[in-house]
């Protein structure tokens, strides 16, 4: 009896969450405007309540999936009795309605966590942050309830069995990729709320940046991992061995990442030097708006891809309106309030400030070019000027040179001083790194890989130019300590975060350069007994067989692989699966992963005479690409753990109890400068 | 000029020149990398450029797929039920490639009117016809009635015998 009511319970919980979000949006903001502490105090409990009820709603939808309740349209369209339980769990967000619900749940979750960790913040600041988050929540919950209710029923004609989850999505990569990506997208809403709250309250000081920085870093780290996972998933699941397609959906996640990266750097300047304030706020607004736009692109059905689950213009229109309202309102607030928080601090053209400014400009240019390439076909189409597509060559032609220029400044930035730096000092610090990078960059491709390649050399040069100056900087910083270890210990976690992040970029650059140019692909016709040699490995097909999985049938090829004449032998088993409920075929790639190379074998198509078209690839250093992403994310998280952010919390609690105003804030600012 | 103004001027000049370079590069890259879409009827009318990368789409014509027995070369016809386009390709066709199904090929039109494909993308569409193709046909003066019924009929027939079922194994 109760189980039949689960979807209704979920639906009601969703409605209650919406009402709570509305209260959370209105009361604290009104309270902050009229200085009423009681009204401001509504923020925290409402955030907690909203999170609780969304958790209930989400739990109910999950329960419907687990119980195979096909009277719920969402379950009927995306699940099946044969689907293994773990994919039922992930199928909840493997479709439009469920994923928007997950989005809202995460938004509420971030709001709840923000309300817990903001106890040391001034009351009006918390109230404004909570209010803005509540307003964003209202928008999304309305979107869920009005256009994409996951609890819609198919009564009285409920189907006997479900239509099954898209086979491409039945995979571990998909279990973790969307939640990570959403955590990133949604996390920027907290940063956005902080920025708007600062504008409204006219409080954009060093303390504000110390509150905003950890949230930015965490959201950015999630987004980085999400993008890396998406790329990894596409690599092994789509069966081509590509890892980035410049697909509009991928671009949609890259755009907020680019502005988010700019934001992290600009926040550093704002915290240390008190400049770039308006710019930082603008970046926070842009990053969140681009997250919303990504959602619009993916969810509206204007794009056709694996990610676009449904074509419903009403949904696209709703998100577009949401985006328009967000952008208009936040820019309006910015226009009205920004002059109040602006603050001029001079700096020399050769200084870390200036280099970070250039970094920001470059990142924004990258964002604009990617945005243009992504939206251009959509704009032309909507104006009726023809159907075009913008392919990878466009993006590569622009992104690669821009990245090369950026890496020049990435080498200079970490060793430069704030405010001003003598050109001579910079030169003494860097000339050796430059020479070594040039020589090694040119030499490495001579000894590594089939032939010398200018692009690989350039990639190596860029990576070395990023890494070597940092090594030099670490050496300089530890030179005067008692021992090398003691010197290392003195470096702050923020610094190590920067080192890891930049190291990650270097890894990714090397991975991209090498795998793009030294990748070997052979498409061959193979039957049992046939053998082929690729990059020094012998691939021999020994057997073709069929097997039955939980919800699919599969043709399996057994491939014996041996390196050289006497090397180690191992077997690889690629499959071609046919999913029964949808009748959709799927390629299951066989991978032999390694730190220096991946072997990649995929079954193409049955050629009829007992042989198959096989795709065999040797991909050197392809893992470095994602390893770099993980390093970047680790760097972002490491910086959050820095004493500086914890200390302010402890200190401010102490001050709150002791109530010693002026002298303490002096000390705090001195420590911040140190 | 005060130093501060001077600095500001440099910022503005720098921004303007960078933007100009960026816009220039972008437009250049866009112009040389746009792939226009053509349907078989447009290609038959001679609207498509030769030896330039274009995208063409339609349905894979029934019974037109022929594989070379010794290599991965394959030839097939793409049709919009008004005109046909000959396509040749060397490589592995996508999982969803099937006769009577929608397909988009990226490649260059040759002087002999055939298309050399670099990439073949299959797409599943419930209306038995990609929307771009339907639109191109309407622009060429055909009415939906001229091709929709035919498309649906072929689609249904292939579907009835097409997708292998569990019982086949």
From TrEMBL, chain B:
Q: Name one GO molecular function term.
A: metal ion binding
Q: Which residues bind heme?
A: 124, 128
Q: Does the keyword Ribosomal protein apply?
A: no
Q: Does the keyword Transmembrane helix apply?
A: yes
Cytoplasmic topology: which positions? 1-8
* A Pfam entry, by short name: CcmE
Give the record's membrane topology: Single-pass type II membrane protein
GO terms for biological process?
cytochrome complex assembly; protein-heme linkage
**Localisation:** Cell inner membrane; Cell membrane
| Residue ranges crossing the lipid bilayer per the database entry | none
Gene3D superfamilies for the chain: Nucleic acid-binding proteins
GO terms for cellular component: plasma membrane
Cite the HAMAP family for this sequence: CcmE
Q: Which family does it belong to?
A: Belongs to the CcmE/CycJ family.
Q: Which NCBIfam families match?
A: PRK13254.1-1, PRK13254.1-3, PRK13254.1-5
Q: What is this protein called?
A: Cytochrome c-type biogenesis protein CcmE
